[in-house]
Amino acid sequence: MTAVPLFELRGISKGFPGIKALNDVSFELRAGEVHMLVGENGAGKSTLMKVLCGAYRADRGSFFHNGKPVTINDPAAARKFGIAVIFQDFTLVPYLDIAQNIFLGRELSGRLPGLIDRRRIHAEAKRVLDMIGFDIDTRILVHRLGVAQQQMVEIAKALSQDARILIMDEPTAALSDRETERLFAIVTRLKKNGVAITYISHRLSEVFAMGDRITVLRDGRKIASVLPAETTPDRLVTLMVGRPVHSTYTRPSRPAPGDMALEVKNLSGPSGLADINLNVRAGEIVGLSGLVGSGRTEVARAIFGADPISAGEIRLFGQRIDGSTEDSVRRGMALIPENRKTQGLALARSVADNIVLAGLGRLFPSGIYIPARAIKAARAIIEKLRITTPTPRRPVATLSGGNQQKVVVGKWLNADARFFIFDEPTRGIDVGAKAEIFRLLDGLVHNGAAVLMISSEQIEIVRICDRAYVMRDKRIVGELSRDDLTEANIVRLGTQQ
């Protein structure tokens, strides 16, 4: 390790209306080092990285490259120093194909001036995708991909730039354990090649497995910078939240399941789903596990009525539903989708508007909207879920990812739903908030609700669920009872040929 950092930020401050996102933060990146950046949602991690890559301009502070002062005012200036970013919120163009997205703005020229060598672009895109073990047709339009697949494209896009400084903001949030292992291998290889890596993660296992150094932010300030060998997971969480918090979650005892809440029989659909059979009873949390692309989200969307079905039937509390989202919501079903920004929130509206949206009929049976009642209902949810926002009237687009996820959950609580589908409920959420979400799930089922939970983190399925179904190739290939619910059994069923 050299004495002079490859890149350094000193005294960075950044404010937005009503909030001080960063306050005198210093941060350094060294060649061949993985520098973990941790903190609660809203601590300033993503803001600091956006300042580094030129997406935001700092209000105050300095930049140094190899010890020499430099200026970064925009993304183009950052790219000159070899800075590439894998954002938590994707920067893909939906109606361009995979290869076009990977090389967007860096298209490879053809033999004649002004022409693009599309064949070479697809070949290079395929090469980069092969590096991360993602076997897919590069001509597929991005909007047809699931969240996890889009994340793989984002990773390939960053790697294609031959970056010397790579910023990874929750890169494994939507990946299964298998894809995560591939990513770790890539990070190790880049590190050996002298790349400086900043890695933002809420998964403490990743922080200690991959990190050479750990910096903690809290409320926009740098709290500490430590070596992994000098701290523990619980100590790290205490630094992050400012109070002792258990970093693990223990499933409490639950009463025996009640009546059948959901029955899915022989469900098939145009998305490739085939012969799906599952059920969930009141008072239980049932997991749905499998590798990326196995069909978990497709099942959730088909049950909720967001995607069409071609065969089979769905019964909710004993009544057959007609396959529309309106009927599902009317009968008490809720979907917390994996992509909160495009499917779960009205980003241009306020926090309060989003929270009351799904429960308008319950709150205002007369059809007359009463603002004071809406704000009161929103404040109750904000307090219950500890949503960090200066006011209910703040635009939901300005909240951190974890707080946005809480808003999505909150709107269905406000609608008095009885059956919940949680698709990756803890994606991009810090450890303290994860425990709150898990306690929320327990509270729901203890009050008689039923939950179907999808998660790419097998340990979450094992710790939280009463039983689980495992998917492979758009089919359910096994059901695991509580006694058989282990990570090893999930992997065995999910990968068996």
Can you walk me through this structure?
The protein is of the alpha/beta class. 34% of the residues lie in helices and 23% in strands. It is built from 18 helices and 20 strands. A six-stranded mixed beta sheet has the order 6-7-8-3-9-10, sandwiched between helices. Strands 16-17-18-13-19-20 form a six-stranded mixed beta sheet, sandwiched between helices. Strand 17, helix 16 and strand 18 form a beta-alpha-beta unit. Helix 4 packs across helix 5 and helix 14 packs across helix 15. It is globular and about 70 Å long. The mean pLDDT is 87.
Defining traits:
20 strands, 6-stranded mixed β-sheet, about 35% helix, single chain, globular, about 25% strand, about 500 residues, alpha/beta
Task: Summarize the model shown.
Helices cover 34% and strands 23% of the residues. With 497 residues, it is an alpha/beta fold.
Write down the overall geometry: globular
| Class from secondary-structure proportions | alpha/beta
What are the low-pLDDT stretches, counting only 5+ consecutive residues below 50?
none
Number of helical runs? 18
Number of strands: 20
Percentage of residues in helical conformation = 25-40%
Strand neighbour order, sheet with most strands: 6-7-8-3-9-10
What is the C-alpha radius of gyration, as a whole number of Å? Answer: 23 Å
Residue-averaged pLDDT: 87
Biggest beta sheet summary: 6 strands, mixed
Strand content: 15-25%
Query: How far is the N terminus from the C terminus?
Result: 45 Å
What's the quaternary structure here?
single chain
